[in-house]
Amino acid sequence: MAEPILPGPLAVRVRAPAKINLTLRVGPARPDGFHPLATVYQAVSLYEEVIAMPAEPGVIDIRVSGEGADQVPADDRNLAHRAAALLARRTGMSLGVRLSINKSVPVAAGLAGGSADAAATLLACSVLWELDLDHEELLPLAAELGSDVPFALLGGTAVGSGRGEAVAPALARGSYHWVLAFADGGLSTPAVYRRYDELGPTPPEPFEVSAGLMNALRSGDARRLGPELINDLQAPALDLMPSLRKLVALAEEYQALGVVVSGSGPTVAFLVESEADAVDLTVALSGSGLCRSARYVTGPVQGARVLGV
Ligand code: C5P
Using alpha carbons only, what angle is made at residue 156 by residues 249 and 85, rounded to the nearest 5 degrees? Predict the structure, then answer.
């Protein structure tokens, strides 16, 4: 019979948001293979939920349920598994953890669902193991795990640099209405970056976040933000999944304020003026036959946070 394991909490429930990239400018590949980025992230109201429970020393056990769970490995290929292992190693923690991941963010969608799982796991394990680490202390570990993990901890609207892992909050007003169209199937992030290299990056475009985008965010005016949305990975994503072109083209037909492929795709994010417009567009996209489903979300929202202990 197993012994009682520890005196800490019996379960810690954390949620972390999906992200979209309002701008994603990509520079030429670095010697380590990663591409330098100038990006603006926004966290949106689509969440991964992770519950961490005590387990025997050394054990990291993962159960995955929800959206796309059958495509997610439950072993050490899972970023949440690696997050728990990294935190344990760095803090000398010998206790184990049982993780229950409930997914709402589609897999390989350009929305950083796996990164949200990792961010939520860092925070959940930190509380479960009573390590008492705050977001600031978790950020360097998050950066080791993946380019999008620090932003999933931070949330809000933020400028990302380096390979995406260096994040700084951006001055942004207001709340924005988005409709996310989930394509049939996913795109592999490394494959999209490879295609980007093959197609040839398109300088002389400046490899930086435009002043126009930052000013639009400061004004809180969605009408000004719409034309500023830009993603250098959109061309390679459309090249790998040509059916996305028709989906993107619907923005004009439905008079969205702006449209952009999120991250490495294939999710397409439509910016609209109001909740009513978002509901109309969600219905239209869902019935278009051009995507698997569509979902209304708002942004910015908070990063990873504890819902209950
Ligand atoms: O950091 P992350 O694990 O999310 O990156 C996944 C892959 O995407 C990398 O292995 C790399 O091929 C590509 N990538 C890149 N440049 C970035 C971020 C990711 O080339 N800035």
Answer: 105
Q: Which protein residue has the closest C-alpha to ligand 1 atom 14?
A: 34
Please give the number of the atom of ligand 1 that sits closest to the Cα of 148: 4
**Residue of 64, 16, 66 lying closest to 41 (CA atoms):** 16
pTM of the full structure: 0.95
* Tens digit of each residue's pLDDT, the chain (309 residues): 444 455 788 999 999 999 999 999 999 899 999 999 999 999 999 999 999 999 999 999 999 999 999 999 999 999 999 999 999 999 999 999 999 999 999 999 999 999 999 999 999 999 999 998 988 999 999 999 999 999 999 999 999 999 999 999 999 999 999 999 999 999 999 999 999 999 986 654 667 899 999 999 999 999 999 999 999 999 999 999 999 999 999 999 999 999 999 999 999 999 999 999 999 999 999 999 999 999 999 999 999 999 999
Q: Catalytic: 148?
A: yes
Of the candidates 308, 307, 309, 306, the one whose C-alpha atom is nearest the C-alpha of residue 138 is 306
Question: Rounded to the nearest whole angstrom, what is the distance from the C-alpha of residue 161 to the centroid of ligand 1?
Answer: 13
148 lines ligand 1 (CB under 6 A): yes
Residue 37 Cβ contacting ligand 1 at under 6 Å: yes
Contact, 300 vs 45, CB < 8 A? no
Atom of ligand 1 nearest to the CA of 112: 4
Q: What is the CA radius of gyration of the chain?
A: 19
Residue 23: in which H helix or E strand, if any?
strand 12-26
Q: What is the interface pTM, i.e. ipTM, of the complex?
A: 0.98
What domains are there in the chain, each with its CATH number? Answer: 12-170 (3.30.230.10), 176-299 (3.30.70.890)
* Ligand 1 binding pocket includes 227 (Cβ within 6 Å): no
Q: Report CA(270)–ligand 1 centroid distance (Å).
A: 25
